[in-house]
Specification:
two-stranded antiparallel ribbon, six-stranded antiparallel β-sheet, alpha+beta
Length: 142
C-alpha cells in the first residue's frame, strides 16, 4: 500500500481553505484516506432529494467527484489545481431518503499527469451501491 501524503486531518484543513463550498461545513466528512482509498460521508438533508423522494443525481455526482479529489490528494499531497477531466456515473438503484450517502473511492492508476479511479456510492448501511462512478483527474506539472 502506498503511504498517504496527507492525513485525514491535513486533508480537512486544506479542503476547508481551498474548497469551502463543499468542505466548509459539516455536511461532507472524510472518514478515512490512505493514499489508495478513501471513504466520505454526506449527511442526509432534504436538499439532497429530487422529486419522487430519491437522492438526486447532482448530489451523487458531486460527492463522487469530492471523493476522487480526496483520494487523489491523499496520494499526491496538497495539489489544489488537480481537476476532473472525465466523470462517468451509472445510477444503479434509488438512494433511500433519510440515509447518509457514503462514497468509497479507490485509485486505479496514478500517473504523472493523470489519475483514474472509481467510486461506489452507498445509501446508509445497505450493502449494494446506488451508483458506480469512474473518473479521471488531471494533475498539473509540479
Amino acid at each position: 500500500m502506498a503511504a498517504a501524503k496527507m492525513s485525514v486531518a491535513e486533508l480537512e484543513r486544506f479542503l476547508r481553505v481551498e474548497f469551502p463550498q463543499t468542505f466548509g461545513g459539516d455536511d461532507v466528512t472524510i472518514e478515512s484516506a490512505d493514499g489508495e482509498t478513501c471513504l466520505l460521508r454526506q449527511r442526509y438533508s432534504e436538499r439532497m432529494l429530487r422529486p419522487g423522494g430519491t437522492i438526486s443525481g447532482p448530489t451523487l455526482m458531486g460527492l463522487a467527484d469530492c471523493a476522487m479529489y480526496v483520494v487523489l490528494l491523499s496520494a499526491i499531497g496538497p495539489v489544489g489545481l488537480a481537476v476532473t477531466t472525465n466523470l462517468n456515473i451509472n445510477f444503479l438503484r434509488k438512494g433511500a431518503p433519510g440515509q447518509d450517502v457514503l462514497a468509497a473511492a479507490k485509485l486505479l492508476k496514478l500517473g504523472k499527469r493523470l489519475a483514474v479511479g472509481e467510486v461506489n456510492l452507498l445509501s446508509g448501511t445497505a450493502p449494494d451501491p446506488i451508483a458506480h462512478v469512474t473518473a479521471t483527474y488531471s494533475i498539473p506539472n509540479a
